[in-house]
Structures are given as C-alpha cells and as structure tokens.
C-alpha cells in the first residue's frame, strides 16, 4: 500500500493543468526568492537617458518613465506580490482555522458570539473598510497585509466552521469522546486534519485574489509605496505613460494573469488530489 | 417449460486496475424464464453486482466484456447502442436498488418522477399517467397513494421508499425485474414486509425476477432457482429446494453451514470458511475454491472443474459434485 | 441486586426538531421521548442482547450509557457506583468501550490504523503495554496482520475495520463492551468470524458484552439473555433460550416470525408484523405496541401495561402475558 501522502503527489501529477499551475507558481516563487541574482539590473537605478526604451538585448522588457529596467522591476515585484499574498492568506488562514474550529466544536454561546463578529465584519463593504484602515494607519505594505488579513478571516472561519459542523456528529468524533479524548485533542488531531486540506484549496485559490488586491490598492497609491517595485505600481506607471509607451501596461499585466491562472489551476488540482476517498473511487 | 426470457451465456467481464485487469466475472451462464424468480447469491467480491449491472446494461466505465453475451429479445443487449440500452432499461428491464434513495431525484416529488418514468408510453395524458402511478403505489401497499405522489423521497420512511422504488420499477410492466440487495438496508420487520410484497406481486406478474443478494434467507423466501457465485464464477445452480437441501459444491455447503439462521442449537463457536478469496487479477489455474476447500484433491489445483450435472437442472462446478 | 452496569428507570427526552417560527414561541417546542422508564442490568461476564427495530432507541441507550447523551431521568450505575457527573463517566469510558455500527466511519479518516489503536492509552495516560510493538500485538490478537497498521481506514475491508474496532475497544482491558450492530453489512462467513472473535475474547478475558442488533440469528447464538425494546420501552427480557422458545410478548413473537428462513420448505405465507414503528413524535397511548399488535384489545389503547415478572428472570410488559404463558405452556410450543 502506498502511503497517503505519496498518493496525493501521484494524483496531483496526473492532472496536466495542475502540473502547469504548479510550474507557474514555482517559477514565481523562484523569482521572488532569488530576485537579486535573477534580475539583470538594479530595479531602483534611474537612467533618464534611456527612459521608455523598447525591449532590447540590454533591457528584455524595456524601461519605464525613469529608465528603470522593467524586467528587473517585475522580478522584484514578484517578491512584493508573493510576500504580501502568502503572509496575508497564511495568517488569515491560520486565524480562520482556529476560530472556525472553536465556533464549530465549542459551546453554543461562543459559536453565536463568533458568528455575530464574522457577520458584522462581512457586512462592511470591503473597499470602504480598507480605505478607513489605510487612512488611519497610513499606506504601507504592513497596513496592506493587515487589511487583507482582517477582511479574509471571517470567510475562512465560516468555511472551517461549516466543515467542522458536518463532522462533529460523525461516528469517529463520538468514538473519540467515548474514549475520553479531550476537546483539544479532538480539535487538533481529528478535526484539523480533516478540514485543513479543504482550506488549503481555498487559500491557494485566494492567493491570486490577494495579489490583485495588492496590485489594485498599490495602483490607487494606497498599498505598496513607490519606489518599491510592485506589479500594481508598474501598472500605474504604465497607465500614466500610456501615450509614450503603450507596451508597459501589457508587460505589467502578464505576471498578474499568469499568477492568477497558476494558483487557480494548482488549487483545483489540489482539491481533487486531497480527497483520499475520491482517489479510491477512480482506482476500483 | 417456457422459453428463457433472459439468457447470460459464458459472460466474462474484467475491470481495468493498476495491477492489471481484475477478472470480476468469469464464464457465467444463467437463464431466467417468464414467471420465474431466480436468486444470485454470494459474498462480497463474488461478482454478483457485476453480473447484475450487466443484466441492466449499466456496466462501470472501466469494465470490459471479454467473452460471452446477455441475450434478451433475440439479441445481445451488451453490444447494442447506448440509445437502445436506454430504451431497454425501464421499459423492458427494470432495477430495484439496495438504497431506494438513489432511485429518486431528491428535488422532485414522487408523483412527478413516476409520471416522467412513463415518457415512453404513448397515447396517455398526464393526468392518466398520474392515475397509473397512484394505482401502482396502491398496488405496492402504500395506503394513501395520492398523498404519497406529492411527497419528496426524504419525507418517506425506509420501508415506504423501497415500496415506492418497486412501484417505479414495475410501472412500465418490464419483462425482467432485477433487484439488487432489495432488503439489506432494512430491518427485520421491513425486510419481511418487502419479501411478502415481492412474493405477492409475482403472482400476477409474468415476467422474470432476478434477486441479487448475500442473504440466503431472502433467496430461500423468494426464489424458485438459485445461482451460487464464488470468485467471479457461478459454482452451483439448481432449484432453491435442491440447492438448500442437497448442496453439491463445497462452497455452497460451507455458506449454508455458516448462516447462524440455519443453526437450531446454540453453539459457542459458529462455523466459518477459513482462508481468503483468490486474487482476481491472477485467478488460480485450477478450481477457484481449491485453497479453502475441505475436500481438495491434487486435480483441483491443476484443472478447473467444468459443470457436473447432479440432477434435473441442478449442476455444480466441482470435480467431486457427484460423490 | 447490582450488576456490572445497571440502567434503572431511565428516560431520555429530546427537543423535537421544530421548524421556523415555532422555535421562537417559548414553551411550545415539543419534546420527544426516546427512552421511557427503561431498566436493564448487565451482569459480570454476561452477554446481553438488545433487539428492536430501527427507531426503538437502541443506539441512543448505548450512547447514554457512555455519557455521550444526557439522560433526563433515572439512574445509571457502573460497578455499583451511580454515575452523576462528567467525572463519573471518565471512569466508565475506561472500564467500558463502545463499538459503532459503521466500523470504518468510527475511525478517524486521516490517521493510520496503528496511531488510532494506541489512542486509548495516550488519552487515558496508560503506558503502552508492549512499547512500540503495541499496535502490532493488538492487531495480531484480533487475527489481523500487523502490516495493516500502516493503512488508512478507507483502505480496510468491512471485516478488517470491524476487527480493528474490536482491537481498539479491548485496548484498556475493559469489563464491558457495548457493540452496536457488530455484524451489520458483513458477509455471512465474516459475520461468524467476528462473533467467534467476540465470544472467544469473552471467555479469555471475562468480558461482558451488550450486543445491540436487529439480527435475531446473532442474538440467538451468542447471548445469554435478551432484552426486546419497542419505541424506547422494554417489551420483554429473559434468558435467550427461553425467550426464543416461548416468547410471551406479541412483539417478540412477531420479530421472531419475521426472520427470513433460508429454507424454501419453511416459507410463511402470512405477514407477522404489519405497518411501521410509529414516530416518537406520535407515541401511541396506553401500550405503545397496540397499533400493530395482533392480539390488541380496547384496554391496550387506554391503559399502560405494568412490567410483569412472569418468573424471577423473565419480564414481560403486556396485559395478557399471563394468559399467553398459560396458553403456550398448555400445549403447542413447537417450532
């Protein structure tokens, strides 16, 4: 019998779209991690003499309005994008799991209280809430991450709570109770592994949403502050100089599109691969 | 004797798997005559479900017919087009499943579905079809059929659901009715009621009934003839009375001996069948029961037994069937 | 007389599932009685069968005995000690184990079998009896290969999963095992193997068993005493052999007659028990069985029958138990 984990990998490898998504995501991760080595130029180095240069051997993707190398800025932008997206979804996911499990398995009053909090959070229009927080704390990468975390937690927590509720009445949880298992043990050893996989799928599908959000807020000058390279900033610069260099907008858009597709494909493949019972059915 | 309505001839079916083709059904031969109820009995992995799905032409996607045919109405129904198969099912060959929930769509009422099932019946208006549906529900013992028509399947109790599923199967007066474990999901009293109902319905139904089950009692109560299956093969067939009172295959003998319902005295240790099913990817060269058989010979391990006639329409796949 | 586990006059009510606005009106939520004045005693080393149709409250009783559901009224006691609060049930769960009807579903789906087998020790702070070998030893004791420990629950067959749950139930050397439908969904030969395993363990370890099932053939062969439950109330109990030979309650008689016979020569043309078990929301007045009873008289719809000790070890809750007893003893009690 193959171990469960190896089966997940095998099932994942069997999906061509999943492999493609994985490859794209991996490329971006490598870009983010090794940006200083991969970038052909310093992304901050201004060279006004060569502004709005078309793609050439020296500048594969051309230069922007200040003559900075666009390819290098996009590579460093991956660092910003993934840094924000993975930190934010990661922290929001962890908080969501914890709150969702407590709401789903804990006492009724605590569940009601948490649901009330989640509902009040979700009833605020997201953009208004983001603007309010940014106005108070000032635009910065840290504020951006905080906003994304606060906005995402209720959704994740509700998702985990629903999953938990569908499990609390099941036989294996009753069996644990009949063996004197503590609440912490049931939550951590038996509920968590059964709900976390599904959330991982949701999270990987949400990473591109957060990347877009980062780009969008940065575009509106509410997120990552220039000159830090961010895909949103590049897009904004491209928009401002649309007349002089129409190609810049397109070049800044490509990584956004690729990242969205990559994470979505990976998420969908993960969803199929993570369900061990689904695998059994395809085998027999 | 009447002609066979449904005939399975030397049918072999295998399923694709990672280890190679699983030979789930090997050279099965069976016939069901009009007005006759036959039972297909055996334990998990014996191939009875594969045989049942072949009878209603609903084989799984990874199944492959490697030999033989299912003859109905003068042709092999496994090789006709999907469209033809769809027409056969329901109209000529109907099925009752173990879980009646699967027979009905949860969002439609029973009545809507029973009317839908009659879509191939021409010259009947919708109210007439509904009338037919109500009559059939009454026929299967539902006391308030008109109210039942307006209900959804989850609003019915387990016994009622199985009755409604039987009504749905019989609605088009099929020539062959296949029931796969029709009472397994029910408890004793509901089981007795469904058995009673099926027996009653048989009286004025002149088609063939095929009961697939692991429960010897259900076959004993309902069937005229029985086919005992083991490891993908039909190992013994005969009238229920012959097979139950004079079983000739050692597997049939062991199966009957194991059933606690057959033991009259309380025994501290119940009889079992030691050993395991053979690997169906590489079935044994000789008799498939050889590894577990108490009367095994050298010959059994090398040479697969053919059918041995032991009485009128009673035969067993065992070298020793006559002794 | 106190046994290993005593259930004394226990009742259990639950709030009925009510729809929409009804829930908002205080005091109007209907209660449904799942168990009603139920008494039962399991002796040391005894194998007791509990039978009845689905909806009779069998599984609820099992859960209440393990403290997984709270009882509304009555008294439970284990080894003579009354069970009052959470702390008492912690002790019960060390001395008694529950086996679920669906063995695969009672195992945590994403943990390997070996890890689940040693859970009772970890949870209750008991050192592992054989160290690292503990899961292998436990699997071998129930006749399984130790390599099965590396599998996940969904990779087990029905019979294997059942053996794993027997192994886990026996981990802490309990005095009582409550087995809910231990043979449901198993093939006949595998069913016999599981029952033999249970009876073998009983004589080796002096275990008591409460076997909850609707399979009368199982009860007849392995139990010493049998209790018949109908709609949350005890209809009859007594020594298995006697109850099967001379059932006094009409419900017990109907249940026995309903069993399918694996013999075409013994077919019964008539139907032993018509209709279905009533809903707990519409509990019949008087004797709850009167709506389906073949011998019901007007009195049965009005007056609740008393628990009637026919002999010191047989109880029947029927107005006409005494008449039935005289009838059956006076002549044809053959089967």
Strands, helices and their partners?
The complex is a heterotrimer of chains A (284), B (323) and C (335).
Chain A: H1 4-13, H2 16-33, H3 35-38, H4 70-105, H5 108-123, H6 126-137, H7 141-168, H8 171-178, H9 183-219, H10 231-240, H11 247-274, H12 276-283
Helix pairs in contact in A: 1-11, 2-4, 2-11, 4-5, 4-7, 4-9, 5-7, 6-7, 7-9, 9-10, 9-11, 10-11
Chain B: E1 4-15, E2 22-33, E3 37-41, H1 48-55, E4 63-72, E5 75-76, H2 82-91, E6 93-96, H3 110-116, H4 126-139, H5 145-149, H6 158-170, E7 176-180, H7 188-203, E8 208-213, H8 216-222, E9 225-230, E10 233-239, H9 240-245, H10 250-258, H11 298-302, E11 308-311, E12 314-316
Parallel strand pairs in B: 3-8, 3-9, 6-7, 7-8
Antiparallel strand pairs in B: 1-2, 1-4, 4-5, 9-10, 10-12, 11-12
Helix pairs in contact in B: 3-4, 4-6, 6-7
Chain C: E1 5-15, E2 31-42, E3 47-51, H1 58-65, E4 73-78, E5 81-82, H2 86-95, E6 96-99, H3 113-117, H4 119-124, H5 134-141, H6 158-169, E7 176-180, H7 188-205, E8 208-213, H8 216-222, E9 225-230, E10 233-239, H9 240-245, H10 250-258, H11 298-302, E11 308-311, E12 314-316, H12 321-329
Parallel strand pairs in C: 3-8, 3-9, 6-7, 7-8
Antiparallel strand pairs in C: 1-2, 1-4, 4-5, 9-10, 10-12, 11-12
Helix pairs in contact in C: 6-7
Helix content of chain B: 25-40%
Oligomer: heterotrimer
Largest sheet of chain B: 8 strands, mixed
Largest sheet of chain A: none
Shape of chain B: globular
Poorly predicted residue ranges of chain A = 279-284
Report the total helices of chain A.
Answer: 12
Cα-to-Cα separation, first versus last residue of chain B: 29 Å
What's the average pLDDT of chain A? 82
According to DSSP, the number of beta strands of chain B is 12
SSE order of chain A: HHHHHHHHHHHH
- The structure class of chain A reads mainly alpha
Could you tell me the strand content of chain A as a percent range? Answer: under 5%
Number of DSSP helical runs of chain B: 11
What structural class do helix, strand and pairing data of chain B support?
Answer: alpha/beta
- Portion of residues in helices of chain A? over 70%
Q: Mind telling me the C-alpha Rg of chain A?
A: 22 Å
Radius of gyration of chain B: 21 Å
